[in-house]
């Protein structure tokens, strides 16, 4: 039948065009090799893990939503380049599971700069979080101090100074045997003392946290950075790219061979000279 595929004819066409197929395929491979060696620079990846959990009770996942990483990182790399935004874009953050840790990653062609980018970004992010936490605790400390002042003022208005209190005016504690202990039995006074005690506990805890963040070496940002080692080159898959390019060249060469065969079979080009033939009516 006319529509049946003649495998022998296909093989003959491919054999006649073997030099075209070989030439185009080899040319594609040479171009791929030349491009990969001359124009492709090795790219390095550096990583570091940071631990922001000492500064907050939230996990690192929530920290990603709280910290403005782009702005913080941009300020950290400002002095390294005339285009710091490009450097900032090469830095990424990822949560490490549910541990609360964050993985800081940088990709750059310069391995030394790559490591510096990671270190600067990690230090900047932790410093931002520590300073933010210190500001929160400072504001909390001020609020607790104001609450203590208001509470002392309320106790003074209700009961006066400790040495000037008239125990006889507090009923039903006017019995002689109860005059010395009435304040401990008065529910209002007891409630005020309990509230004051709770505020003092919170105030002292706040002072301890501020002291830790300011002076404890374990809470310094540089001690909460865990480098991932020397920058490693990212696999370029050069061999795979060359093979794929050669395969594309091979497929294109087959297309060229069959196109040439079709044009010659239809008389559009001369089979001997390879020149196009103009038909006249």
* CA-CA gap between termini: 32 Å
Task: Please give the largest β-sheet.
Answer: 5 strands, antiparallel
Topology as H/E string? HHEHHHEEHHHEEH
Shape type: rod-shaped
**Helical percentage:** 55-70%
Mean of pLDDT: 79
Q: How many strand units? A: 5
* Class computed from helices, strands and strand pairing: alpha+beta
Taken as a percent bin, the fraction of beta residues is 5-15%
From the alpha carbons, calculate the radius of gyration and give it in angstroms: 40 Å
| Helix count from the secondary structure assignment | 9
Note the topology:
Layout: H1 7-16, H2 18-38, E1 44-50, H3 60-66, H4 69-76, H5 84-89, E2 91-95, E3 102-108, H6 111-159, H7 182-185, H8 187-215, E4 225-227, E5 232-233, H9 238-265
Helix pairs in contact: 2-9, 4-6, 6-8
């Amino acid at each position: 039948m006319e529509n049946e595929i003649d495998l022998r004819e296909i093989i003959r066409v491919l054999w006649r065009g073997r030099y075209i197929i070989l030439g185009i395929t080899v040319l594609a491979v040479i171009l791929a090799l030349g491009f990969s060696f001359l124009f492709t620079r090795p790219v390095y990846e550096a990583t570091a893990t940071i631990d922001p959990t000492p500064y907050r009770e939230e996990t690192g996942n929530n920290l990603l939503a709280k910290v403005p990483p782009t702005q913080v990182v941009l300020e950290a790399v400002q002095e390294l380049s005339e285009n710091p935004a490009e450097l900032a874009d090469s830095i990424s953050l990822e949560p490490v599971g549910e541990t609360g840790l964050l993985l800081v990653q940088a990709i750059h062609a310069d391995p030394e700069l790559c490591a510096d980018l990671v270190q600067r970004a990690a230090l900047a992010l932790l410093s931002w979080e520590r300073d933010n936490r210190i500001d929160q605790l400072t504001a909390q400390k001020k609020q607790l101090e104001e609450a203590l002042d208001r509470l002392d003022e309320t106790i003074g208005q209700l009961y006066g100074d400790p040495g000037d209190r008239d125990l006889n005016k507090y009923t039903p504690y006017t019995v002689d045997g109860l005059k010395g202990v009435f304040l401990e039995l008065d529910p209002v006074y007891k409630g005020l003392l309990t509230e004051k005690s709770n505020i003092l506990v919170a105030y002292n805890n706040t002072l301890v946290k501020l002291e830790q963040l300011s002076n404890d070496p374990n809470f310094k940002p540089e001690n909460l950075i865990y480098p991932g080692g020397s920058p490693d080159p990212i696999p370029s898959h050069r061999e795979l790219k060359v093979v794929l390019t050669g395969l594309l060249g091979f497929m294109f060469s087959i297309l060229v061979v069959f196109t040439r065969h079709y044009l010659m079979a239809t008389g559009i080009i001369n089979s001997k000279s390879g020149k196009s033939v103009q038909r006249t009516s």
